[in-house]
Specification:
Layout lengths: L2 H12 L8 H13 L7 H6 L12 E6 L2 E2 L14 E10 L6 H14 L6 H5 L3 H17 L5 E10 L6 H17 L4 E5 L1 H9 L5 E5 L5 E3 L2 E7 H7 L24 H11 L6 H4 L3 E5 L1 E5 L2 E5 L2 E4 L1 H9 L10 E8 L3 H11 L15 H12 L3 E3 L4 H4 L7 E3 H11 L4 H6 L1 H6 L1 H7 L8 H21 L5 H6 L1 H13 L6 H6 L7 H18 L3 H4 L2 H10 L2 H4 L1
Parallel strand pairs: 3-4, 4-5, 9-13, 14-15
Antiparallel strand pairs: 1-2, 1-3, 6-11, 7-8, 8-13, 9-12, 10-11
Helix pairs in contact: 1-8, 4-7, 9-12, 10-12, 14-20, 16-20, 16-22, 20-22, 22-24
Length: 554
């Protein structure tokens, strides 16, 4: 395939990517972005998974998922139900016009070292620590969910701006895939050509799905209510690889609860045969969408978002192979509504009856609507609904989600960078901690959230610029500590109430200031031990407070 077509969509896509990336790094980011479309990964999460460099073993990016949820440092394994799907995605991206055998050989050596054998100290010394960490995290995840009978897969990709690879390369790729399958039967290894990358890149940012209706639906005030065959609904929520389309589930209430009573009841009703209609026994599914229109026999839906009925949807998907000759139906309500406030009313109302923690609905709180409006006026985009602005094509350097903003406020206002580094999700679940971060009062002025956003993005941009020349342990662990000290430096004082944070001027930050702050923080961290555990230790934060003076970083 002529790479001109790929280059055109590539150049369109990278406009929104983080600044300061080289051509090769942009290609790595592009490949990860497109390959993980159905995993609903944010720009920040994509960046966190980039590894490339000397000793990377052929790993340019790596991501670990359980039930298509990214496994981060604060991942809650207690939320994982029975028979989870564990997936390790490893990506090798070469910004070259041809495939070669060397990258396949490197990946073969990598998996031989870490998957087909137990890594020795000699093996570990040959790879970057973050590569070893990828497989250590994978093994830890398997240990955590081992008693839940997980389905395990490794999906490896070798991407290039190239036409079809030579037969010798295809042969090596097949050999590696067979070896991976022998270890974990659902594993794959794919050679991703320019043609395939083009297909992935051309997939619509606007997702339009057709949902066949069993009978003409009731149509009232921008809403359609109707019955859909179970097999047709299963197909509606399934991608081309047979997995659930993660992006169509409302991000804050989409965690499948697994083998709990309600799901056992749904499963039992699906298995009991066709005598009793399924929709008589089940409340059904609620979808909000940008637009919905019935054209016999389909309900055409633009950007569907399932906001109620996730457990039902997942159980129907799980039973899909047995539903092909089943004429029973599920009740589906589709509401065409683009106004975010109205959508949030629907989300909250349709889930009110469930025993879901209030933290699942933080995005509907009024404070977040105010932050969204204020940041937008400053040229930034507050992703209350994960990836909503990413899908609109807004630039990565201008998007911040609830979790990242919480981490920024934890670091700057509350001066708890160790919590931001280790357990950001916990702060959103605990009511007192949440209120300390997100409150509409005198100590939480809107300007404070803007300042925290800009300072965090300045630190992240600087860390990207030094990533290849700096110990990964420093870059991975010290972002939020550096953010805290940067705010002190701007203030010339470590006392920073919210009103004072709001008065800080981020335009005074330059690379020289960032370098001085980061160098000082890195030095303190090295002296403290420079391990992941040390970065999560509040004693290190105290040491920074005790040691810092304006002259240290100004």
């Amino acid at each position: 395939m002529d790479t001109t077509m790929l280059d055109s969509v590539f150049n369109d896509a990278i406009i929104a990517y983080p600044s300061g990336l080289s051509a090769d790094e942009l290609f790595e980011f592009f490949c990860a972005d497109k390959l993980l479309t159905n995993y609903d990964v944010s720009y920040a999460e994509l960046s966190d998974g980039i590894i490339d460099g000397t000793g990377d073993g052929g790993v340019d990016a790596a991501y670990l998922f359980i039930n298509r949820r990214l496994v981060a440092s604060d991942f809650d394994y207690n939320s994982v139900g029975e028979e989870p799907e564990v997936e390790l995605v490893v990506i090798q991206s070469k910004n070259t016009s041809s495939f070669s055998e060397a990258p396949v050989d490197k990946l073969t050596s990598l998996f031989t070292a870490f998957i087909f054998n137990t890594p020795s100290s000699t093996t570990l010394a040959a790879f970057k620590p973050e590569v070893a960490a990828v497989f250590a995290n994978f093994r830890a995840a398997l240990s955590e969910v081992g008693k839940k009978f997980p389905s395990v897969a490794i999906h490896a990709f070798y991407c290039a701006k190239a036409n079809a690879p030579a037969s010798s390369i295809v042969g090596k790729a097949e050999a590696l895939q067979n070896a991976l399958k022998a270890k974990y039967s659902h594993s794959t290894f794919s050679l991703v050509s320019a043609a395939r990358l083009y297909e992935l890149a051309r997939e619509q940012k606007t997702l339009t799905k057709a949902l066949p209706a069993a009978v003409p639906p009731l149509n009232v005030q921008n809403a359609l209510v109707g019955l859909v065959k179970l097999s047709d609904f299963a197909a509606f929520v399934t991608d081309n690889q047979g997995a659930v389309i993660n992006r169509i589930f409302e991000s804050n209430v989409r965690d499948y609860q697994g083998d709990v009573e309600v799901n056992r009841e749904i499963a039992a009703s699906l298995q009991q045969g066709t005598k009793t209609e399924f929709w008589w026994l089940n409340n059904g599914v609620t979808i909000v969408a940008d637009k919905a229109q019935y054209e016999h026999p389909n309900i055409n839906i633009r950007n569907p978002l399932i906001v109620n009925g996730l457990q039902t949807s997942f159980e129907i998907h799980a039973h899909a192979p047995k539903l092909q000759n089943d004429n029973r139906n599920v009740l589906v309500k589709i509401i065409a509504e683009t106004d975010q406030i109205e959508r949030e009313k629907i989300i909250r109302a349709t889930n009110r009856q469930k025993a879901i923690q209030s933290s699942s609905f933080r995005a509907t709180d009024e404070i977040h609507a105010k932050i969204d409006d204020y940041l937008k006026a400053q040229g930034y985009y507050y992703d209350r609904r994960k990836n909503s602005y990413k899908r609109q094509g807004k630039p990565a350097d201008r998007i911040i989600g609830i979790d990242r903003l919480a981490q920024a406020v934890l670091s700057v206002l509350l001066q708890k960078p160790e919590v931001a580094r280790a357990r950001p999700g916990t702060a959103l679940k605990n009511e007192a901690d949440y209120k300390a971060i997100f409150t509409d009062d005198a100590n939480h002025p809107m300007q404070m959230y803007h300042v925290a956003t800009v300072l965090l993005m300045q630190v992240e941009a600087y860390f990207r610029s030094i990533r290849k020349t700096t110990d990964r342990a420093l870059v991975n662990n010290m972002k939020f500590h550096t953010l805290m000290v940067l705010a002190w430096t701007l203030n010339a004082n470590s006392t920073l109430p919210g009103q004072r944070v709001a008065q800080l001027d981020p335009t005074k930050v330059d690379d020289q200031m960032l370098q001085k702050v980061a160098t000082w923080v890195f030095g303190e961290f090295n002296a403290f031990g420079a391990t992941d555990a040390k970065a999560r230790d509040p004693k290190f934060t105290k040491q920074l407070k005790d040691s810092w003076a304006p002259t240290a970083t100004s």
